[in-house]
Predict the 3D structure of the following.
Amino acid sequence: MLRRLLAIIKKEFIQIRRDPPSLVMVFVMPVMMLLFFGYAVNMDVDHIPLAVWDQDQSQFSRLLTENFVQTRYFDLSYRVQSSREVKALLDGGRVRAALVIPPGYARALRRGEIATAQLVVDGSDPLVARTALSMAELTSRYKSQEMRLAVVDAEGVPVPAGPGVDIRARAWYNPGLESTKFNIPGLIGLIMQNITVMLTAFALVRERERGTLEQLMVTPIRGIELMAGKLVPYILIALVDVGLALGIGVFWFKVPVVGSIFLLLGLTFLFLIFALGLGMFFSTIARTQLQAMQMTMLFILPSVLLSGFIFPRASMPLVIQYLGNLIPLTYFLDILRGIMLKGVGIEYLWDDVLPLAVFGVAIITLASWRFRKRVE
């Protein structure tokens, strides 16, 4: 009995050894999950990119800016000179908050009056926006006395007791800070990616398992024609899914498309080309549908964690942020939220469109090469 049991165990190890892709995933998946969840799953928001428009240009206005930066919740990224620059930076997603200090700020402090400033926050990400608003309130509440003492030190005269600094916060794009308006565009992007990748990942593998791929090989059809013929139906299915997802998001969840719907559909098609090409690339590597599913899941996991779908990328370590830059969904989510929530045009989206186009061309080229090599 023991001999038969050992023979079965030996045979099973041989079978495992003959399936290197599955064997690699068995060891790679837990390591990836631990590292990604350990570093990416972080609900603590800090290092929020901040723009400052200091119209007062005084010692005390600079002190207010320093107070924001010293909290470590804000990183001073830009100093601007106009409201137009503030809007452009927020529209383009290069900053998440802007501190606007009006002229007369220092004069009000010297007189013991309320010195007002404004913090404009990008409300398209409610988690980041709430953190920024909370820090503005804390700065207003606890730094007032420090500001008055700074005036005493600088002027050498006592300052009348007064309410001090009042930071008036305002959220753009999503004034109610509704999580639904942040989540729905992200879900649309994630669902589109997952469906299209999985659909095409099984396409070639299924043909091979059924034995019909060999039959196609002996026909006059060329490899590139076969690939195009297999992709077109999935492109049409994906476009129907896009319309369905957008319709539910807009009419059921009440998340409006503020920007151009035609621009949104055009850039969505660009992303779908990448996703379909990636699925086809997986199908040229995998030998079985199980392997194709494993590869798809191995790609989906980092897409969820590192793209900014749930967790703010600014709070992740730099290495993890760089890895997120290698995931096309990162750029597509910026496009979706930019058009749907902010109503921005293509002029603000080039930083996302160009990498997405590069990824699409690269994966389609690679998938075509592998597919043609396998078929011909």
Observations:
- Residues 178-375 form one domain.
- The chain has a mean pLDDT of 80.
- Strands lie at 48-54, 74-79, 97-101, 115-122, 165-172.
